[in-house]
Amino acid sequence: MNIKVHRICVLVFLTTSIVSIFNIVFAQSLEARIDSLVLTEFNERDGPGGVFMVAQHGKAVYQKAFGKANLELDVDLTPDHVFQLGSMTKQFTAVAILMLEEQGKLKVSDPVLKYIPDYPSGDKITIHQLLTHTSGIKDFTKMKSLSSISQQEMTPKMMVDFFKNEPVDFAPGAKFEYNNSGYILLGYIIELVSGDTYESFIRNYIFEKIGMTQSYYATDRRVINRRAYGYHKKEYGYVNKTVINFSVPFSSGSLMSTAGDMLKWQNALTKNQLLGVESTKKTFSKYRLNSGEEFTYGYGWHIRETNGTPVREHGGSIFGFKTMGVYIPDEDIYVIGLSNCDCHSPTQLTRDIAALAQRMLKRRR
């Protein structure tokens, strides 16, 4: 080997070594700073905790669990544990509706009356308004009589009948107000149009299609590997979550998943594996009320800006669990936070982690 070639080889080796050392140091720095943020809230080793993941360009750059998955059995949480998603379920319901629209089986501009002929004022409420929380129908979670059905097995029609005759809160399209009933109606429409159950449709056309092997329609009876158990916190300590029948939250909040599977979900959306470009654009667009005022919700996601940067996000809350997902399209950064105690909200923490990751990952470039 001549001297010139030798020098080139040495230079390549040194450059590669420096880059490797830099990446290791950077990863350690990112991990330490995220750990520091998480431990401000999730700092009880023997209590319920959470799982947090940061990914960029489809790959996890941080993934860690804190606390216990099961207090009775003293089982530590791992990044692979399965959590109830709560209202993050709405993302899947919205995408399922758009998949059916692409198949020509419905249009988001269709009135509810087209699919549920006996729905009050169903000629004035559209699927679009259900998706965007602008329908004005009564949110069943605010009804005092909810406790009377919370542990009953309810069909989608029974759920719709439970709230359909309640007085509306406002005229369709007049206002944005977060609404779970709208997403119950969407799940019912999915079943009517597809001829399949909501559970089966989500499993067959989303979970199985993109390899979400640890994601489920929630159940307290089925044995689910690596299930994280949910808890409440009382003055005297932790107690097991309140038991409900998952047919009640249905398509507004009854799915379960892991951080890893939720990354597969985000990657599938980014790569248009489930929806075409135009449908994806619909999902992540802002819309306007009848007055022309713009509001910051698309189809199943809040569409916001943080310090001038576009952000898509959505959280969830259901007995014993709280969740949050944040996606920064410009940097292709996805952050997910999952908690198995409704005493610990990952909402602001996940946003803070996303902002930190954005700053640090930008700097690395």
TrEMBL record:
It comes from the Bacteria. It holds the Pfam family Beta-lactamase. Residues 43-343 form the Beta-lactamase-related domain. Transmembrane segments: none annotated. This is CubicO group peptidase, beta-lactamase class C family. It comes from Ohtaekwangia koreensis.
